[in-house]
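Technical annex, item 7. During the second reporting period the consortium partners agreed on a shared format for inverse folding records so that results from different sites could be compared directly. Each record opens with the tokenized structure and is followed by the designed sequence. A conforming record, contributed by the partner at site C, is shown below for reference.
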């Protein structure tokens, strides 16, 4: 004896109300009228596909069926697709409805009442979004929609100018933002204002409206899942830094509202550590650290993020010993650490094209994708020092992890050599490249990369352990006349130190 499924539901009503119900379920819900056996009482069978899911029949004269009756039956659910179309249809016909979602799943819901007052749920089974790789067509060829234009800076790549108006009166030129809140004019406006609202207006719960409840965030420690985790972490940080500010330094973007907007958001975090944090009691120290967050957003939600918070710089600026903190965090690790092999593979492959754009879509002339990939390969895999001279302006400016900041090729070469001397068997791959600009105005590019290596030499991170390590980073370049004039680079240095400490 087995129940297979729910076959149908039946509504009995007066003849006039029955016509209203038929129109409602056919014209608004999308069921279709079909075959009905020749019962004595009039009525309709309404179909979803080939199955009659709703039986409508005229109530007898002696039946007492008051409309809008309260009962223990709350609603009937119909499995549907095309939620935006239903919302548009209900809005055009002034049909009241409410939206909801099932916690911990991708199921979205619409609740409404039919003309008889019966509760109806339209259920939309979602799937975890997958970020699609970008193509050359998705790269902006200018800076009309850019952070520099948004805040009124003089030229691309300027970075934050003290005293600039961070939220302007004019949000810039309109851009197709299908599925996003109407208040946002373009992708730069969206990233800047949601960040300001969440962190500086302290509307932390707004994260639930701008991050998917199944969002995936790869950070120093591993993989963080869902908007609730992001909300909890943000509350923790604002409690530790009550005057925290997140200042937009630059945003490199590509994509659109169909494939997804990809943004590489470079931010300056400033604040005073006046509350307890994951690193210990309040130190009352001021901090000024760089963050780079590479996000993918659709329909007003960020559903994928690779973010590096420069935690090693933060710990140093709090006046704490970085080596001691790495050992302490191995003993009491944050959520997600150490990342497993599956997480590492997902981190590397997310948004990565099956073939480099410069290979699948070759062009004549300067190609940012080819330039970036060749530069990383030459420096890290081939250890070709001459590539630095070929690709970098002699006086270029560098900002990097753990408060590294300097100008010029010699200092950059020394920094690279310190890492290369510490690790053998470095195998680096470029996971994603996107950019904006042109030959005349220059380019701003974002490169996400990852590498495996072995800690075989005493030096930067203490005595050699022989352990295999995972390294990943995000680099932004300003490229003018085929040369890198600015580089901002973060990698998972605290996590790397923890991997080494765990092997001791």
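Designed sequence (site C submission):
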């Amino acid at each position: 004896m087995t129940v297979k499924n729910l076959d149908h539901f039946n509504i009995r009503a007066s003849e006039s109300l029955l016509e209203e119900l038929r129109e409602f379920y056919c014209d608004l819900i999308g069921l279709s009228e079909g075959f009905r056996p020749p019962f004595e009482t009039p009525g309709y069978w309404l179909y979803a596909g080939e199955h009659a899911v709703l039986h409508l029949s005229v109530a007898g004269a002696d039946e007492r069926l008051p409309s809008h009756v309260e009962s223990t039956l709350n609603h009937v659910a119909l499995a549907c697709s095309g939620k935006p179309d239903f919302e548009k249809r209900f809005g055009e016909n002034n049909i009241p409805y409410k939206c909801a979602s099932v916690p911990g799943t991708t199921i979205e819901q619409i609740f409404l009442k039919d003309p008889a007052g019966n509760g109806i749920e339209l259920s939309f089974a979602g799937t975890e979004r997958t970020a699609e790789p970008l193509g050359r067509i998705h790269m902006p060829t200018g800076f009309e929609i850019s952070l520099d234009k948004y805040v009124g800076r003089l030229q691309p790549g300027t970075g934050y100018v003290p005293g600039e108006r961070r939220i302007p009166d004019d949000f810039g030129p309109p851009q197709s933002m299908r599925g996003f809140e109407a208040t946002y004019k373009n992708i730069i406006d969206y990233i800047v204002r949601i960040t300001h609202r969440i962190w500086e207006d302290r509307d932390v719960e707004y994260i639930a409206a701008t991050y998917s409840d199944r969002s995936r965030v790869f950070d120093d420690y591993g993989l963080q899942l869902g908007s609730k985790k992001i909300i909890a972490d943000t509350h923790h940080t604002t409690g530790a830094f009550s005057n925290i500010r997140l200042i937009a330094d630059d945003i490199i973007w590509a994509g659109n509202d169909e494939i997804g907007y990809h943004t590489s958001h470079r931010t300056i975090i400033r604040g005073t550590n006046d509350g307890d944090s994951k690193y210990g009691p309040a130190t009352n120290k001021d901090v000024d650290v760089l963050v780079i967050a590479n996000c993918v957003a659709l329909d007003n939600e960020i559903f994928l993020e690779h973010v590096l918070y420069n935690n090693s710089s933060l710990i140093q600026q709090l006046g704490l010993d970085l080596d001691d903190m790495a050992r302490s965090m191995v003993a009491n690790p944050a959520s997600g650490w150490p990342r497993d092999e599956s997480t590492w593979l997902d981190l590397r492959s997310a948004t990565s094209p099956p073939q480099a754009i410069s290979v699948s879509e070759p062009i004549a002339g300067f190609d940012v994708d080819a330039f970036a990939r060749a530069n990383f390969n030459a420096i890290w895999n081939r250890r070709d020092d001459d590539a630095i001279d070929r690709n970098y302006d002699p006086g270029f400016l560098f900002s990097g992890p753990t408060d590294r900041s300097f100008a010029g090729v010699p200092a950059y070469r020394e920094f690279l050599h310190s890492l290369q001397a510490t690790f053998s068997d470095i195998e680096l791959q470029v996971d994603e490249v996107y950019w904006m600009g042109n030959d005349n105005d220059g380019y701003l590019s974002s490169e996400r990369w990852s590498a495996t290596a072995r800690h075989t030499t005493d030096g930067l991170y203490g005595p050699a352990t022989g352990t295999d390590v995972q390294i990943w980073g995000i680099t932004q370049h300003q490229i003018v006349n085929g040369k890198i004039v600015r580089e901002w680079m973060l990698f998972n240095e605290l996590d790397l130190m923890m991997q080494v400490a765990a092997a001791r």
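The first helix runs from residue 15 to 28. The CA atoms of residues 191 and 301 lie 11 Å apart. All partners now use this format for quarterly exchanges.
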